[in-house]
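Box S1 | Example of a co-folding query
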Amino acid sequence: MESQRIGLLGGTFNPVHEGHLQAAEEVRLRFALSQVLFIPSYIPPHKQTTDIALPEDRFAMVELAVRSHPQLVASSLEIEARKKSYSVITLNKLKAIYADAWIFFILGVDAFLEIETWKSYREVLEQCRFIVISRPGFDLAGAREALPPEYAGKIGDCRGAGSVGDDLLSRFRIFLVSIRALDISSTEIRSRVRAGRPIHGLVPDPVEEYIHKKNLYQE
Ligand code: ATP
Ligand code: MG
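Box S1 (continued) | Returned holo structure for adenosine-5'-triphosphate
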């Protein structure tokens, strides 16, 4: 029987935006994933500034954002842990929950470029498959330079816009995927809110309402 395929998208989600949703939907379709879990990271409240919203607020916004996307799911796995979560630990938990599934770690090339700084990154690369997605302003091919040369044979390019076939899936562990990425970042949204500029269309409407109602990201 075909294994179930689960995607995970980690991040601060400070706040979640249309770029995250677009990326998750496109990857979900191309890799035939049954679900993509959005997993906001825990950042301790003592780090709280006007620039980092509370974990509960970041999670609430993710929940609002995925409501209209049945296959995208908000996961409180890292927030519930109440301490800094490392990917190696999160993946062990997910592998226990989805024992027979194939897990795909989805991340933007900007995030993948830092993978050597992750705790136990070699182990993390053994734990699951990786989908590295393009992001405006970053060179997707640069992802190859992020890892030592012995990983070169594990990295495959997924060209074209169609679904990714079983041949590629069985040959590689790390997939470089050019998507129709939107030029949106949480940093830009926070600075717009601070400056009193509109964020309409950059985040889902209920997230926009939440930010204004709770006065997030104000001076
Ligand atoms: P910030 O500006 O605060 O860093 P961000 O927009 O980069 O926020 P994150 O929560 O840091 O959002 O991102 C979570 C994951 O989503 C990362 O792997 C990141 O590369 C990816 N990502 C974020 N925005 C986009 C986008 N517009 N297109 C493709 N990938 C994205
Ligand atoms: Mg980021």
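The longest helix spans residues 18-30. The chain has a mean pLDDT of 95.
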